[in-house]
Every structure is written in C-alpha cells, then in structure tokens.
Amino acid sequence: MAGASSCCVNLGVTAKTQQPFASSKSSKLSNSSSFSFFPDTSSPSSISLRAQKPLVSFSVTRRRDSTLVAAASAKPEPLKIMIAGAPASGKGTQCELITKKYDLVHIAAGDLLRAEIASGSENGKRAREYMDRGQLVPDEIVVMMVKDRLLQPDSREKGWLLDGYPRSSSQATALKEFGFKPDIFILLDVPEEILVERVVGRRLDPVTGKIYHLKLSCDWLLITKMWKQFFQCMKILQSRHVIVSLPIYPVKIAKLFWGSLPVSSTAPYHDIILRIGF
Ligand SMILES: Nc1ncnc2c1ncn2[C@@H]1O[C@H](COP(=O)(O)OP(=O)(O)O)[C@@H](O)[C@H]1O
Questions:
Q1: In terms of domains, do 157 and 202 share one?
Q2: Measured from the CB, is residue 274 less than 6 Å from ligand 1?
Q3: Complex ipTM value
Q4: Residue 162 has pLDDT above 80, yes or no
Q5: Omega of the bond prior to 250 within 30 degrees of 0, cis?
Q6: Same domain, yes or no: 196 and 238
Q7: Secondary structure of the chain: what % helix, strand, coil (to 5)?
Q8: Ligand 1 lined by 117 (C-beta under 6 Å)
Q9: Residue in 133, 137, 175 to alter for ligand 1 test, most ligand atoms within 8 A of Cβ
Q10: Which side of the chain, N or C, has fewer Cβ within a 10 Å radius?
C-alpha cells in the first residue's frame, strides 16, 4: 500500500505554509507521497489536488500447475483521504467537492454516530450521552464503527474520505493497527479569529435550510469591490446547489432577515472557494 502524505491548507486571510496537523498526532501518518497539494501556478490563489497514483496494478497468483501468473489490472487503487478541521473551517464544503470530484464514499464519524443513535442500539444510547455533553464518544464505540464502515464493499471499491476521525492519537493508532492508511491527510487550517467571525456571522435560511454568512451574502460594498470573485463564487455555489435563492433576495428583505450588514475587507467564504482550486 502506498504511504500516506499529509498536507495543511491554510484557509485564512493570510496564506502560509505550515507543518501538517501541528502535533505529533499525525507525524506517523506522514511519509512518502502518493497525493499532494501543490500551488497551481496558473492561478496563484488556488491549490489543487493532483492524483499521482499508479493507474495499473499487478497481481500475481500461483496456478495449480505451480506456474505463476501475473495479471495486470487497469483499475487504479481507490483513493483514501482523511480530512480534519475546526467547526466553520469549511470542511463540509471541501468534503462535498472532494467526494464529488474523486467519487469517494464520504464517511463522517458524526454521521455514523447519529445513525447508531437512530438505530436505538446500546452503543447508540451510550454514544448519545457523550454527544449530548459535547464530549468525544469513547474509542471502543467509535473505532469499531469506523472500521466496519471502511470495510464495507462500497468503501473498498470506490475509496473513501474519512471526516471527523481520528480525533485523538489513540483513534489514529487504532485505525493504523487495523491496516488502514490514508493516501493523504488534509488539515484545513483556519486562524481562530476567522473561525469565530464565521460562526458569529452564520445565519440559517428558513426557506432552504442552507447556512449563509452575513458578510458573503449581504455585504454589497464588498460585492461591488470584488464583483468578479463574487460571481465566480456564486457560480460555484449555485452549481453545487448551495445557494439557490440568494440572488433573488432583495436588499431590504435581506436586511430585515439578517439584520445590519457589516462592511469588511475580508471575504471568508471566497477565501475557501478560491484557494482550493478544484
Ligand atoms: N472521531 C470521534 N470520536 C469521538 N466522538 C466523535 C467523533 N466524531 C464525532 N464524535 C461525536 O459526535 C459529535 C458530533 O460530531 P460532528 O458531526 O463531527 O460535529 P462537530 O464537528 O460539531 O463535532 C461530536 O461532538 C462528538 O461527541
């Protein structure tokens, strides 16, 4: 199996290169690289994920007459990605983009736990107690759940994007001991002040159920200043059905709905969309 590489995508206002997963937790996951993030020179503000996996894999089998038969398969080995990031780091958006682009199975630890709760199982009942308190669910529940999901035929066949796992070094070690290794570990590194700003500015559209940000959605001064990026961004968002009704919201209704419209020179959402050049 190919070794894992890791990368850190800085999605703050100022871009900088950093060590991935800034702790010893992920250092074991980092060695040779099958996938890597690299600056896309055609667009200085974007970063692209480029596949470098072998397109042909070989298998060798021994026949009954003891001759060895080598078979070449044109099927590439499925891609395996782990992604981590704080709330409001844009993880949901990136997961959507990555799974769509690479046709991977999106496995979110939180979703698995919610499904377990919905099933009414004993594990689900225990998990709920921890989740209600905002604490991590014990490893003995989470690890086996994630492992079982990774072993499902669709994950093995298509590859996976594991989201929200590992959240501790013991979870990482456990998965490694089961023989799972990501090809790449993506850490969305957003400065804390930006995360706070995003969370504070988030609003839920009661009609569509979608989440918007005050500054992105209603900052008309910003929009006129950055019209090109705005429309580019809107196009991407609309194509992914994230923002459907926003362009038809009149300013007055938007003001009533979202309150005052702050003016800012930063564009958190643009930042994510433009820097990740998928
Ligand atoms: N890898 C994990 N290990 C332990 N508990 C987890 C893990 N992933 C999710 N959880 C539990 O599920 C809850 C919801 O997780 P998630 O859906 O990822 O949302 P959030 O990003 O808000 O934590 C967490 O607060 C935690 O209690």
A1: no
A2: no
A3: 0.94
A4: yes
A5: no
A6: yes
A7: 45, 20, 35
A8: no
A9: 137
A10: N
